[in-house]
Amino acid sequence: MQTNWFYAQSGKEKGPVDDEAFFALIREGVIAADTQVWRKGMAYWQPLTEAVRGDEAYESPVQECLEIALSLAAVATVQDAVQVASSAPHGKRVIPCSMCGKPGPVVELNFPEGGSWLCADCQQNALQGLKNVLTQQQQQLALAGFLPRVAAFFLDCILLSILLWGLSPVLNIPLPDIEKMLRLQPEQMSKYVNSFQSTYILLAMITFIYRALLIGFWNATLGMRLLRLRVIRQDGAPAGIQGGLIRAFGAYISDEFLGIGYLIALFDSERRTLQDHVAKTRVVRIPPNSSQKPE
User: Fold this and answer.
1) Domain limits of the chain?
2) Do residues 116 and 109 lie in contact, with contact meaning Cβ atoms separated by under 8 Å?
3) What are the pLDDT digits (tens) for 62-117?
4) pLDDT at res. 112
5) Which fold has domain 5-53?
6) Are 100 and 119 in contact (CB under 8 A)?
7) 137: which residues sit within 8 A by CB, 6+ positions away?
């Protein structure tokens, strides 16, 4: 169910906007952590982070949108500085350089931390430093590699196996006996495996629900969370419940075809699996320091 949000901008009330537009405004930096927001059910207007605190449906997606906004803002700031430094003329004034102190032709450049008068040599050093910062900021939204995703997949398999094992006595679910299977003849194996058809169907249903709900509401399965991976849409928005459902269906297809859908990521420039293509999602790696909440 969509929620209509209102937010304050330049002393004026804006809205209503639905969840999708609300998250987009946060990623774009229009709505910041301290922006006053309101929705039905709230007694009064509150800063964004206070308004969603403790709300499982919003707290995690909002925090990740804020992290994306911070990274994109930093990248944009450094890109502007790099552009200015790259196109700056030389020799506008003859005063000591702000970096090396040598007198000579200098030009004023506007950097993120403020303006500086730099000579030609120091301009190149500053430019390289800015490019390094830009690279670091772009890594904040780095695509997850294939091996971390494989590791997350196996972690989820272990967790789901434990869940099924715990439910088996409660729901009277028959589980295969591995030791017995190893003693069977090839012609007996298929008959024994087919006797657990209901177990396989139940496992598929649990897996589908697990993937759809956790990605839909939490942007990651438990295995992904442990490895700091998140699922986002192409535009950087959280996958949402619709994306979670579509992605879970794509993963089911991949499972049925012996994991071929997962191997697509090896040959895709953005490491997308079949389910990523179907749901139009990406899996990104959240760096360790991004867990700190913005002030």
Assistant:
1) 5-53, 70-141, 146-291
2) yes
3) 888 888 777 777 666 655 655 555 555 544 555 667 677 776 565 555 454 445 66
4) 47
5) Dna Ligase; domain 1 (3.30.1490)
6) yes
7) 71, 74, 75, 78
